[in-house]
Amino acid sequence: MADRTIKPDSGNDLVLQNNGGGTKIEIPNSGNIAITGTIGSGTISSDVVFPAGHILQVVKGTVPTSADSFNSATPAASSLYVDITPSATSSKVYITTTFGIDTLASNNAWAALYRKVASGTAVNIGDNGGTYDGHFYINPINSRHLDGASIVYLDSPSYTLTETIRYTVYFATQGSNADIRHDLQTSQIIAMEVKG
Question: What beta strand segments (E) does the chain contain?
């Protein structure tokens, strides 16, 4: 069966409207389709191209319950991480994480997000060339410090489709032990794929 073409007179818009005059599909002369009303049901196909900034997927990472202890100025991985496999090329990844900090007086401590693509090396994506490279820094002057901490970061990773990206919170301290306390509050880490 041949296709059937419906088109208005030259220069005019094409409007398909229900009998009540409400819901309508309008195709103006410019070619941009406008739908007034609610699309009742259906599935968006994987072939649809979303605009930049659209959230393509949301992934929640591990939820640890015990503390991670650290006693070195060399950053080490905590048990707080999230894995995400981008569904499109050139996507950005928006990461947000919250956790508890427990450190003694005058005990500098800092945290950073590290990115690992597939089986590659974990890289500090908060490295700015400073002494304490990371996304979070604390220096309790007079007493022990227990508090909530958070990191928010928009990353632009290099990857190929099907590769999984792992984001992990790393921690370091100068002095005695410092802990990421997952029992002080509900720790969480979330990654969102953002259309590039």
Answer: 14-17, 24-27, 34-36, 55-60, 68-70, 76-84, 92-103, 109-117, 123-124, 136-138, 145-155, 165-173, 178-181, 188-194
Take residue 84 and report the two structure tokens written for it: 């995400």
Q: State residue 43's pLDDT score.
A: 78
Number of domains in the chain: 2
Of 46-50, 63-67, 148-152, give the range with the top mean pLDDT: 148-152
Q: What is the DSSP string of 148-173?
A: EEEEEEEE-----TT--EEEEEEEEE
Residue 116's pLDDT band, with cuts at 50, 70 and 90, is very high
Average pLDDT, the chain: 83
Q: Are residues 19 and 85 in the same domain?
A: no
29 and 72 in a single domain? The answer is: no
Give yes or no: residues 38 and 60 share one domain: no
SS3 for 69? strand
Residues 6+ apart with CB under 8 A from 94: 152, 153, 154, 155, 191, 192, 194
Threshold 0.90, pTM exceeds: no
